[in-house]
Specification:
This protein is α/β, with parallel strands linked by helices. The chain has 9 helices and 10 strands. Helix 1 packs parallel to helix 9. The radius of gyration is 18 Å and the shape is elongated.
């Protein structure tokens, strides 16, 4: 018997999770409430150029690595491509390696967790480039800053709300919904008319779970913030 799970992601971001769900007969229905736009953050690049050479590159999203590489070439900053990179989790680490970056540290899947590992690693105040999105969680840079390190954010993409008329139909017979970010939780609720669909809801991590809960959407989370762990839980529905 086929089962269907709505997920607030673009189809191109669902490949890994779908491959993990295939053996369980679960099909994802992408509901991309946010769409990806490239960003050229000229002030951010200027700040990096004016600062003391960074010692690390920090990445908190798989959307960032290739765009960071492309912008480095455009801004004559290819020396940054040799920096050791710290990725928030396995998906981001994989995207960074595919973009040709040198991943030296893979975090546990949360910004707070990666920040804690970096603070333990750095022996002295350190400059880091943070390749990020326009709307980003503050935990990672805030924790590094509090520990005395300098974070140089460079925006390489942004996620803008998808116009409602461009969203796909929800479809019938949904067994679950996966909310992929705090912003997507809010936009999902708007898209479905203000009330969550009558099925189980999952969040990729505690930050999204808390944001969804504040909106009245009760979500479960997997034991670890990874696609593998999420797939294991979804296969039980």
């Amino acid at each position: 018997m086929s089962r269907y799970v709505l997920i607030t992601r673009h189809p191109s971001d669902c490949t890994e999770l779908q491959s993990l769900l295939d053996p369980c007969g679960i099909t994802l229905r992408p509901y991309p409430v946010l769409r990806l736009e490239d960003v050229d953050d000229t002030p951010g690049w200027a700040a990096v150029a004016a600062a003391e050479r960074p010692a690390w590159l920090v990445l908190a999203s798989p959307r960032a690595p290739q765009r960071f590489v492309d912008r480095c070439h455009q801004h004559d900053a290819t020396d940054l491509l040799s920096l050791p990179a710290a990725a928030v989790g396995t998906s981001t680490a994989r995207a960074a390696e595919e973009a040709g970056l040198r991943v030296e540290l893979t975090g546990p899947g949360t910004g707070q967790g990666l920040a804690a590992e970096l603070v333990d690693l750095f022996e002295a105040p350190t400059n880091v480039v943070f390749a990020c999105g326009h709307d980003r969680r503050p935990e990672l840079p805030k924790a590094l800053d509090a520990a005395g390190h300098t974070v140089l954010p460079v925006e390489v993409y942004r996620m803008d709300p998808t116009p409602p008329r461009e969203l796909p139909p929800l479809g019938q017979c949904l067994d679950a919904v996966v909310l992929s970010s705090p912003r997507s939780a809010s936009l999902y609720l708007e898209g479905v008319g203000g009330l969550p669909l009558p099925c189980r809801h999952w969040a990729l991590g505690p930050t999204t779970q808390q944001a969804a809960g504040a909106l009245g959407v009760e979500c479960r989370i997997p034991s670890e913030p990874t696609m593998k762990s999420l797939a294991e839980e979804l296969c039980k529905i």
